[in-house]
Amino acid sequence: LLIEEEAVAGNVQADVFLSQSPGSIGFLDDAGRLGELPAATLDLVPPTVRDAEGNWVGFSGRQRVLVYNADLVDEADLPSSVFDMTAPEWAGRVGVAPGNGSFQDFVTAMRVTEGDDVTMQWLDDLAANDPITYSNNSAIVAAVGRGEVDTGLVNHYYNYRALDEDPGLPSRNHQFAPDDPGSLLIVTGAGILAASDDPALATQLIDFLLSPAGQEYFADETFEYPLAIGVEPSGDVPPIEFSDVSNFDYGQLGGGLEQTRQMIADAGLQG
Q1: For residues 223 and 173, what is the distance between their CA atoms, to the nearest angstrom?
Q2: How far apart are the first and last CA of the chain?
Q3: Which of 51, 52, 85, 155 sits between 20 and 30 A of 242, alpha carbons compared?
């Protein structure tokens, strides 16, 4: 990470770190690069979506889902587990974005909950099932909407954005079982860099992201899950309860995020 390189050189140029990837913010936290946030800021969100040590706080979230074309796939045939997507009946029918950060976060979380051996086997099985590779979540949702591919593994909000622009699209979101790795809830977090020259101003930015105006933007404009206490998701986005990520330790993984990327590449999934 550039920030880590700057910190080592004693020349950090930023005050706040915002990351859609919990792996990145966890990396900086483990390296001691984040300062402690004020209690008033931390208390704007539930304890489950902030660092137990007070070094970062979640301000929005998204869920991994299976987007599918309702004209091509019967809802009754949709599986309850992401592990089922490697079955023969889904061969050539699943879109993935192996180079995308959210896919890598999902695989990293699977390594934590299921272990490296199970995760590697799933990646190998997925690759052997001839998935269709795309550059990002938006491309997958668009492909599903036009019938190019039947289903795709994405974050929930991309399809809500597509439907907001064109309500006639046949794309729909399917949630895997709540305890399935395919239903991962990913927190977007913020922290003040320990080397910040103006932590008070940095705190103001994070407080704004957690203010009613900031949270309503994430809910109504991006269709993400707002994380501040008392703010509800927008429209048809189903309410969910984020599990406890306050002590999720990415440092426990051998090789961390880089090892996840290597495992994806070793399976032959290229994005």
Answers
A1: 13
A2: 20
A3: 85
